[in-house]
Amino acid sequence: MRDMNRWWIVFAGVCLQMALGAAYAWSVFRIPLSKEFGWTISQVTFAFTISWFFLGCAALLGGLWLSRSTPRKVAITGGLLWGAGVFLASFSAHKLWWLYLTYGVIGGTGLGMGYIVPISVLVKWFPDRRGLITGIAVGGFGAGSLIAAPVAHEMIENLGPLRTFAYLGFAYAIIAVAAASFLRNPPEGWHPEGWMPSATQVLQRSHRDYTLAEALRKWQWWAICLLMCINTMAGLSIMSQAAPIFQEMGKATSAAAAGLVGIMSIGNGLGRIFWAWISDVTNRKMAYFLMYLTEVALFWTYHRISSIGILAVATFILVMCYGGGYGITPAFAADYFGPRHVGPIFGLMMFPWAFASAFGPSLFAYLRQINGTYTIGLHFIAGMMTLALVLPILISPPHNREEVHASAPGDLNISQVPLDDPTA
User: Fold this and answer.
1) What are the tens digits of pLDDT across the range 43-52?
2) Residues spanned by the domain of 41
């Protein structure tokens, strides 16, 4: 019964993440807002960029608050801010600055504060399946646009973009607050009935909980952060240019390219679960290495692809790898620094991520503009990821030498292994 109860918390966390992940549906607002108010595509897109930047910044704030408050309060606050930001954007007629402030700053802050909560909570409920469970949680965020995009498109056709903001903001807030109300940490000393960590888990996990300040003094924190940032730069570069890539390299029509972009969002969500599961079957460092190796092989050969079918498959795999970084990294942080303070420890990783998510696609688009093809940009990413292959090979848990136990699998005893402290 205790194990069944935690799956209801998973369901609540996924619902919250899907309400927040509706932010991925922003592209359906770009053309309607441009046509109605005369704003350029770049001006409208900048609202999305602002919201993503504040997501990265607010994830740290949410993580720090989690250390002093309950998951329910932080998640409800995040949901209300996200819903309020979208709702208030409905008053941005001919006021671009208001769109930036509401959807960008307020909404983005809500996204970051809400995003970090299910991750922090679920790694404590699932010490036995950390990778899979964080993959499911962030997979909900990646899949949020699957529902939000078609609903928003239909509402825009009938109501216009501003009234759509109003209705969607209200709906997002209700769903997010309702889901957040069920989020809580497990009781002190809790662990799954009958569960005992394997020898591999013991060797690949820290034997104590680190504070944020302690984690920042470990090179492993910076290495994990760099792994996620490089993966984000590579994946978002492709995702941000997917439609023109399909048209230029695969000779697809604009309608076909748009349809393929929609399919790519499935890869984003699926990759978060698939690679997180792989990290449970192997370990976090091996999963990252295999994911990077897949991307290196594809990025070095991507520019040679001319068949739209093969191009779509290759892009789908790259987008899966992009999503995989979000599935593996929270579990990686919990393994190496303990689950107690994973909120602020992983939350701070989202701050440099915010810069990587803006810098990568911008550089990729600039290289395309000055060279006339995507080849140089693809080779730059391939070279960067080839060099970064050494990171998952070198990284290891920040054990102190006196903490390491060289026990054989048959010698493991649950009383000798420090269980994860699930309290927050």
Assistant:
1) 887 888 888 8
2) 1-184
